[in-house]
Amino acid sequence: MQNIDIKSILKSSNYKGLSKLPDFGYNLIAKIVKQDEINSILEKYGDYYGIDFLIKIAEYLNVKIDIQGIENLPENGRCFFTANHAYGIVDGLVITKIVGEKYGELKFIGNEVFNLVPNLRPLTIAVNVLEKSPRENLIALNKAYLSNIPITHFPNGKVSRVYKWKVQDKYWQKGFITKAISGQRDVVPIRFYGSNSNLFHFIYILRNALFIKKSIEFILFPRELFRMKNKTIRVKIGKPIPFSTFDKSMSHAEWAQKVKKIVYEM
Predict the structure, then answer these.
(1) Does residue 57 form part of some domain?
(2) Considering the domain boundaries, does residue 150 fall inside one?
(3) Domain count for the chain
């Protein structure tokens, strides 16, 4: 079973500040991201892939899901299931679990870091949110858009941070509107309640105050995931928005913010 090796990942990364650390630095980061616990999970559930793997992770974490509006999931799953990005990992786990159990298949548009977990590759279309995505990833993305497979997506692209004095998504990218229209996919709005820890948001505020551009708080994502052990995630599913709604009365970018507003008012 392939294990996660933080030192090797960082040494080969494009993050110059993280590729030349002393060993104690790598060891500290490995501890923060809970490398040993992640590898223990990969070892324990190494024979499970895709949706089955996600179900096992949910069982391991004993994450309970309090869902409202489950009846709003359409029978035809050829939709975009779009949500606010409240947590980073656990919301991705939950949305794919909900959609996967309903339709039996899906594709998840997510950060390329998920490619480090082979068990998730059957579900994931990797997108590099910091740099230009490789051509093969873009080909896979367009292939998914044209398919009949349900697609889950966090249009913000990044996890919710402090914005206008509260934790929320900042700006939803317009791509899902454009592809909803061209691919004739309805949009199912989904709201996650809650947020990451105060430590996560403190580091975000601090690094902005110090004019650090790199999103260094991302190394806390595994910690945030394991923080949700034995907890309940509240989710609300709204009624599908027909793709025909997105007419020329507004631009695609404006429609994206409109859908974001609908999600936060749920």
Answers:
(1) yes
(2) yes
(3) 1
